[in-house]
Amino acid sequence: MEYMRAPATSSQGNILCCTCGIPIPPNPANMCVDCLRTQVDISEGIPKQVSVHFCKQCERLVSWQFGLYVIKIKTFLMLKEYFLVQVRLIDAGFLWTEPHSKRIKMKLTIQKEVMNGAILQQVFVVEFVVQSQMCDDCHRVEAKDFWKAVVQVRQKTQHKKTFYYLEQLLLKHKLHQNALNIKEIHEGIDFYYGSKQHAQKMVDFLQCTIPCRSKTSQRLISHDIHSNTYNYKSTFSVEIVPVCKDNVVCLSPRLAQSLGNMGQICVCVRVTSTIHLIDPNTLQIAEVDGNTYWRNPFSSLCNPRQLEEFIVMDIDIIRDLKLGAGAGMRSNKHTLAEVWVQKTSEMDTSQQYHCRTFLGHLLNIGDLVLGFDFANSNINDEFLNKMNPHYVPDVVIIKKSYDRSRRMRRRNWKLQEMARDRDGMDTDDERQYQDFLEDLEEDEALRKNINIYKDVSKVAVESDTDDDGAPRISLVEMLEELSLNDATGGEGADMMTD
């Protein structure tokens, strides 16, 4: 403890302390430092030992309040703010302690005006005792049923390609971290949140990334009549359009005309923020957003299990095709061709089918393809039943077929997955997931929005002579899985001051 006084002049003399009588320079209290120490303690009222609560789950300190001070300490014990009322804070710093001692010592230097305007300065140490206590956020995570809002994502389809794509988008943008629990159920996923704001953020993200529509409802849980506060549980219902990649759809005449007079029977080649359609007869392409779809809805005419395997018997590229007036854009990545195909299950017969395809740049005589057989199918669709049978093709080719077991052995990359509860899952999930991985290999535009990681456990064992031409993902597009360690050295001792 010492005085803070103005510089003494040459003519200033000494006075005697009014208590002990020793000569001292003049000061407003007329007392020496030792006598003032016995009379006044400017740190009185400030606790010298305080308990702080440390959460082992999220590894952060909980804010606390003591005396005239409100101190907020975040990870690595960084002091952020001080709010003092009666004393003035001059300096503050942490003192080094053993990491396992569960003690945090902080040295404070304060000033205060005392008797007759004298200003005293004092240095003391405050000791914080660390005690384990789970924070409120971790309580909500551990209590699975303690949620304030839920986002119910649904899609009425028999394939989960859109959900697999959505999962990778959530992992890339880290929007799944705020969820208390993620539960996968039939036809969708439920995301539980501790606040309505986090749920609304998820709904806004879904509306920007996939074509969907949402509804909101809330249920009153409790009401405090004294403070006029209400406690609600909110439910956000998000419905994704029931169309997946490689689906054959039949558009309404009005929608087909508005998209550039394209054919009513189209193939969905991709689902991102919009539905990407292509006409297999003319190569016309169009994009249908969520609002357009709900005004003019259409459904899928087949599911992946109804696709049959065909073999290409003959192919003829169509190079000069003139479209009518008002036609829309044509795809530059595909080639229009006329093909003769035969079912692999009917190789002992002479039955063949003629159709047009947009895969002319990939197909050769003898290749295997997957397609939908319109000629031998009974389909109940509102728009298809009203079409002229002359414009309905016998077969619509969807994709080229490769050996799946060989592609799985050569696949040297992997995707991350969200931690979620599974309930009532089908045995067909593994096949659908492999279909999604094959779609990523075949569609470069689709995997641009997804983080693909190198699988170090896979070693290429096949030679180039065993290559069947199946598309593969290059090493340039793969990321390395990184594990970031604490940059402060783990214990954080270097951040303490002696």
Give a description of the structure.
This protein has nine helices and 27 strands. The two termini are 20 Å apart. Among the domains are: 40-136, no CATH class; 248-401, no CATH class. Mean pLDDT is 80; it is low at 64-84 and 483-498. Strands 1, 4, 5, 8, 9 and 10 form a six-stranded mixed sheet that branches. A hairpin with a 6-residue loop joins strand 18 and strand 19. It has 498 residues and is an alpha+beta fold.
Give the structure's gist in a few sentences.
The chain has nine helices and 27 strands. It is of the alpha+beta class and 498 residues long.
Write the layout of secondary structure elements.
Layout: E1 2-3, E2 15-16, E3 23-24, H1 33-39, E4 49-55, E5 60-61, E6 64-66, E7 69-71, E8 88-95, E9 103-113, E10 119-132, H2 136-142, E11 149-154, H3 161-173, E12 179-185, E13 188-193, H4 196-209, E14 212-224, E15 229-240, E16 248-250, H5 253-258, E17 265-271, E18 275-278, E19 285-288, H6 290-295, E20 308-317, E21 337-343, E22 353-357, E23 368-373, H7 382-385, E24 395-400, H8 404-410, E25 413-414, E26 421-422, H9 429-442, E27 453-454
Parallel strand pairs: 4-10, 11-15, 12-26
Antiparallel strand pairs: 1-10, 2-3, 4-5, 6-7, 8-9, 9-10, 11-13, 12-13, 14-15, 16-17, 17-18, 18-19, 20-21, 20-23, 21-22, 23-24, 25-27
InterPro entries: Nmd3, Nmd3_N, NMD_SH3, OB_NMD3
GO molecular function: ribosomal large subunit binding
Domain Nmd3 N-terminal: 17-240
